[in-house]
């Protein structure tokens, strides 16, 4: 069965609650496309109003992060049950900004992935190499190490539902995009790795996004590649352009 494309916006630390609702309204008609799953991953404080504003639309809501514990004395954190109760369906895990600025490591991210699945959330698990790693020729080796560690103990049935976002760090927010061939090569490498770690059916089912300055101008070429099943989009998700990315096939 063909994998359905999934286009997710990562709003990062942008949009107050009222601005968030205004953006949902602005994009409402522009992001209609039955052939694509559309997700807005929004700041924690925007989740409740965005879930409300997207009711009855084709847009699902995601969180940008969560903690792996169920509840308790973890000041400032948000739990999976809180997200589920609020109507969240997806959660970004291990974005490079969280790995870098907030020192999230693979041991922590593995716990988050497992908790997300145990709670009924779909993780969007991010991986990607730095410019230095690409220049040193260790891109695939690095990404394999991330995925193997982040998925330790995760079942094939869960991995079939997983979304992996391949995001070269040097392409995030820089306006530099990986070429479609570079992105395809790594996404195929990730799919081959999933086949090795699990089996062919799991590799066939897992959805792999590309992220890194994807926009209305380059989405169609990237999304035409056989192993690129969608996009994780930062900057271009905050404007009308996002509708053009979602409708890359029209
Ligand atoms: C991201 O934040 O995941 C991302 C890909 O950002 P941008 O599209 O702005 O490069």
The coarse overall form would be globular
How far apart the termini lie comes to 22 Å
Q: How would you sum up the major sheet?
A: 8 strands, parallel, barrel
Strand order across the biggest sheet? 1-2-3-4-5-6-7-8
β-strand amount: 15-25%
Q: How would you characterize this protein structure?
A:
By secondary structure, this protein is α/β, with parallel strands linked by helices. It has helices spanning 17-27, 47-53, 80-86, 96-101, 106-119, 131-135, 139-150, 156-161, 180-197, 200-205, 219-223, 241-246, and strands at 5-10, 36-42, 59-63, 90-93, 122-127, 163-166, 207-211, 230-233. An eight-stranded parallel barrel has the order 1-2-3-4-5-6-7-8, surrounded by four helices. The longest helix is centred in the C-terminal third of the chain and has 18 residues, at 180-197. The model has no long low-confidence stretch (mean pLDDT 97). The site of phosphoenolpyruvate has 14 residues, from strand 8.
What characteristics describe this protein?
about 250 residues, alpha/beta, 12 helices, about 15% strand, binds phosphoenolpyruvate
What would a concise description of this structure say?
The protein is an alpha/beta fold. The chain has helices at residues 17-27, 47-53, 80-86, 96-101, 106-119, 131-135, 139-150, 156-161, 180-197, 200-205, 219-223, 241-246, and strands spanning 5-10, 36-42, 59-63, 90-93, 122-127, 163-166, 207-211, 230-233. 41% of the residues lie in helices and 16% in strands.
